Amino acid sequence: MKKSTKILFSLFIFIGSIYFFWNKNYLLGIILIIFGLFPIFFYFRNEFLLLAFFKIKKKNMKGLKKSLDCIKNPKLQLTKNQMAYYYFLRGILYSESNIHQSENYMQKAIDFGLKFKQNIAIAKLNLAIYSLSIGNKKKAELLLSEAKKMDIRGLLHDQIQIIKIQMKKMNLGDKQNPYIRKNYLK
Predict the structure, then answer these.
(1) Which spans are transmembrane here (predicted)?
(2) Helix (H, G, I), strand (E, B) or coil at 176
(3) What pTM did the predictor assign?
(4) What is the per-residue DSSP string for 116-132?
(5) Is 5 domain-assigned?
(6) N or C: which end of the chain has fewer CB within 10 A?
(7) Structural domains counted in the chain
(8) Within a 13 Å sphere around the CA of 65, how many CA atoms are in the beta-carbon half?
């Protein structure tokens, strides 16, 4: 449902509640006011994003994809902050299967502005993994240091250490590492 449709729906419900208050039917007026608050709540918290966060909490990736696919046009259906989390969840969804597409989504999420530092740290960590997979070690080091700064709770400490160990194993001098994905960016 578009953002403007939610506001119009809420407005019509409030007009109906005013009508019932005018006719001294207070119970229906109060019920309609309560129902009128739902579209306003879903204006600020998109229902499909709420479902997607619930699915990712349960580690149900098929359900996550299904919930995100219900959002057909994010520019019309979501606010700016919601679009950041839409792209963030898309990036997480594609992080295991298509790292290039995951990188695009994570970069969009950072550009739209993720709110929480922990989410920014996860996005930067995924971008560092992508940079490392294409052989850009300096950019990966920079992104890892930014991710470490953003990880205030230390939840990503183990993953950052694993990536640093992988970076030490890479031999990116004059010799190219044979394990780097070749022809990845076609």
Answers:
(1) 7-22, 28-54
(2) coil
(3) 0.77
(4) SHHHHHHHHHHHHHHHH
(5) yes
(6) C
(7) 1
(8) 6
